Amino acid sequence: MVILVGSCKDKAPVASPKEDFTAKKMLQGIWVNYEEQDVAFEAKGDTIFYPDSTSQPVYFQIIGDSLVLHGSNEVRYPIVKQAPHLFAFRNQTGDLIKLEKSEDPNDRYAFSGKRPVSLNQNKLIKRDTVVTFQSKRYHCYVQVNPTTYKVVKPTYNDDGVEVDNVYYDNIIHLSIFNGPRKVFSSDFHKQDFRKQVPQDYLKQGILSDFMFTKIDAHGVHYTASIAVPDSQVSFQVEVRVDFNGRLTMTVL
Q1: Judging by beta carbons within 10 Å of its beta carbon (0-12, 13-18, 19+), is residue 139 exposed, middle or buried?
Q2: Would you say residue 54 has pLDDT above 60?
Q3: Within a 10 A sphere around the Cβ of 84, how many other Cβ atoms?
């Protein structure tokens, strides 16, 4: 018996591009738009900070000829030119963005005291509604409670760069009483509407409000709004409670 044994050389692994720490050091500082002279961002250490109140700081790298931002999505922007006082790159749509390093010490104030803000400005909202049906009075109570639950929505700033805007969700309480008798009482979270709202929208949406609409033979009707911040997308869901406390939710 003759046994033939074949051998092959191990292929060397393909080296991935390494981070350019020299270019990263060169990017440190505050950068302004070359034409409008608006503050674009500040690179500090391995983080880029934005001057607006909703865009989150993002970890960045310079790898090869690309600026890489590690937000909700990893996004790469081709660098056209980089010098100690000039940084030019192309944004998501291919537009050339030219920045120059700021020499104005007042530009630092663009970043002072900025924090993400919530959709409802952290306001506790309370509403009491008294309605009558077939000679029976119903006291309806709604309370919108702001939370620290973050909703992250990727968007684009004026330079066409993807940034993560952060908002805060609400928990809404609804109680209905007929005299001393409790008809219904429950807290509503955004996920309670997962059967009515597509998951992609629910992930970026805010449980914004509950508004009373009517009372009829079917019960007490409210409209719940699940809104995507900074957009025209909003899902309106009818929340109906019958006089025995049974709950029904239907997309309007």
Answers
A1: middle
A2: yes
A3: 9
228's tokens:
């995507």
Instruction: Give me the phi and psi of 180, to 5 degrees please.
Output: -80, -10
Distance CA 116, CA 162 (A): 16
Place of tokens 């077939």: 134
- Terminal Cα-to-Cα distance of the chain (whole angstroms): 80
Write down the pTM of the prediction.
0.62
CB neighbourhood size of 10 (10 A): 5
User: Is residue 220 a contact partner of residue 158, using CB atoms and an 8 Å limit?
Assistant: no
Summarised one tens digit per residue, pLDDT across range 202-222 is: 988 999 999 999 999 999 999
Does 4 score more than 50 pLDDT?
no
User: Under a CB-based contact definition with an 8 Å cutoff, are residues 215 and 200 in contact?
Assistant: no
**What beta strand segments (E) does the chain contain?**
29-33, 39-44, 47-49, 58-63, 66-70, 74-83, 86-90, 96-101, 125-133, 136-156, 162-178, 181-188, 206-216, 219-227, 234-241, 247-251
In order of 16, 76, 247, the CA distances from 13 in angstroms are 9, 23, 60
At 199, is the secondary structure helix, strand, or coil?
helix
Output the pLDDT for position 249: 96
Higher-confidence residue: 224 or 52? 224
Residue linked to tokens 């390093």? 101
Q: How far apart are CA 214 and CA 216, in angstroms?
A: 7
CA angle 76, 98, 77 (to 5 degrees): 5
